[in-house]
Amino acid sequence: MAFVAPHNRRKFRPSLVLAVAKCGIRHMLRPFLREGTAFVAILLCNEDDIDYYRKAASALLEDPMPVDENGCDLVAVLAITADSFEARSVYTRFRYARRIVLITNKLDGLPADLIASADIVSEIAPPTPEHYRAGAREAKVAGMTEEIAEFLAPLPFDTVATAFRVSRPLAASVRHLLRAQQEAAKAGPAPAKPSGPRLEDMAGYGAARDWGIQLSEDLRAWQSGDISWEDVDRGALLYGPPGCGKTSYARALANTCGVELVLASAARWQAKGHLGDYLKAMRAAFTEATKKAPCLLFIDEADSFGSRDAPTSDDHHRDYRRQVINGLLECLDPSEGREGVVVVAATNNPSVIDPALLRSGRLEKLIGIPLPDGDARTAILLHHMRGQKIDGDLKRFVSATRGWSGADLEKLARDARRIARRRQAAITEELLMEVMPARHVFSTAELRYTAVHEAGHAIIGVLLSCDRLTSVHIERDVPLHGSRLVVGLAQFEPDDRAAKTAVYYDARIAMLLGGIAAETLVYGCGSDSAGGDPSSDLAIASDIATRLERHFGLGESLSVELGSGARPLEYLRDRDPELRRLVDARLKVQFERATALLTDHRADLDRLIEMLVTKYRVEGAEVRALLSSTPRKTASQDVTASRPLPLSTRDGERQRNH
Ligand code: ADP
Questions:
Q1: At what angle do helices 577-600 and 537-550 cross, to 10 degrees?
Q2: Which pLDDT belongs to residue 310?
Q3: What is the CATH T-level fold of the domain 374-436, as seen in this structure?
Q4: 444-642 is classed CATH 1.20.58.760
């Protein structure tokens, strides 16, 4: 049973802004406010307002703080910004509290399980004049007329909070605000162009940087009348893992182009809930961009749009998604054109984007933002050091930060600066290493195990010419705390020229099973590293085999069944034992094939393992040279012509599940 902890804090009267923010929170949480109701609410607002809403939610739910019989808090109010997510403490508070409010400016970056646990995910409605009148009553602020409430409602909380001092009467605060507005109007419009780094100043953007610089030149040529709008790229879809710098790219691109940036988020539009409100928010962003043209409209979290083709068993959901995509297509392709508005969308997962959005004249350019390489990581670190020098050659830093995103590097820079400040010491490479999260350094035996697995993928991939091996590598160490750690990777480049046949898909399955086939050959048995996760070797191989049987008519029957739900292929296998048998049989054949090929090429396998444990990374060309120098034996009939498009270029990786 819950009880309320005694507390002896004096009750303070809230400030006007806090009382107004409280009205906003109360409005959002109304269905849950009955005492004892358990809930999880994820509420979205501007970054600048997060602190106000956090304090307001605390005042509403935590004052006094209810605790359980063990003294644990029953309410958790958390504020999370893009760079303040401390997974451990958030999960701990989620575990113990019954009433949870999480306030954030961005859904992107929050773990999917937290979002899925929410009873409500919604944008906090902006303050209304009515909120100001109610807030004034609660904060005991006299003189809140209807006109004043209407004047204050659209202003940022920061502006109102700054003008409104406890000792100053309301009318005087409003006069201050009016005067400030008049001064600003006299000084002319605020500089329209955003400030901050330009693309030219930033590292780690590769092809995206080149595209952006080209776009800025085209926009200038269009502005000076040298080229027509038809000659300017109308939009792009940026994709890359969270924290790789997609939003930062958009800001820098706007600076380089010298145009305004309108920031929008598909997930925020979606959080409006009803389809009508969703479409209204979407159109409003495009209207704002049109008014500000020339400008850049950035749409974050574009995967929230989904695809009209994505399988779902729910007709209502399919219809909702169709209308959203149609609405977006109208905005991207309006009958009057959208001269002067370049649209850049961003996603972590481009495979779920509706193909119609990527056609010419829409988000026509697909640009990957990779995780930064060693040079880019050093440049990003120095960028976030804000001019502070680092002693040391940074070789250890480069090696220890493989796989880190720009966001990780920014956090490292911030932590290092803070500790150096406290210690009043210089920032050294030693200090960076100290600040980094603890890592597990693999033993020689562990490294060899990973090398065996990756060498198996690489050799089968090259022998069966399924896609083109670019490189194979193993990690020397990994962060100690992480849910899905990649410890090695055989990386393939898609070859999208030829038609896809069952021969190609079977070769890919054999390549995927090459990892455990090599383990079995060398150690006598396989490990758990090839399964247990939707992106694992066995899961991908099972999905390919299922698609051959049920999607492509390349198995035992020609009829097509697409499946439904979040894992449609698994759904098909679950309800059809015959399909499961066919998939299993195909996997076994390909596993035996991979084992036979590796047995024939045992000397090459051993050589590649040695190369990996010695230098950790081997280029695709080296593996091809290794294999072509050895005469092929019985496996030669297995070698097929190069074939196209894999489902993923990251397969063939070995993971650790902690
Ligand atoms: P995304 O939109 O891909 O999730 P963001 O653009 O929000 O990533 O980046 C998160 C943080 O990481 C930002 O605060 C930014 O400063 C930093 N960051 C990411 N990439 C870079 C980069 N190439 N250069 C400098 N900082 C970067």
A1: 120
A2: 58
A3: Helicase, Ruva Protein; domain 3 (1.10.8)
A4: yes
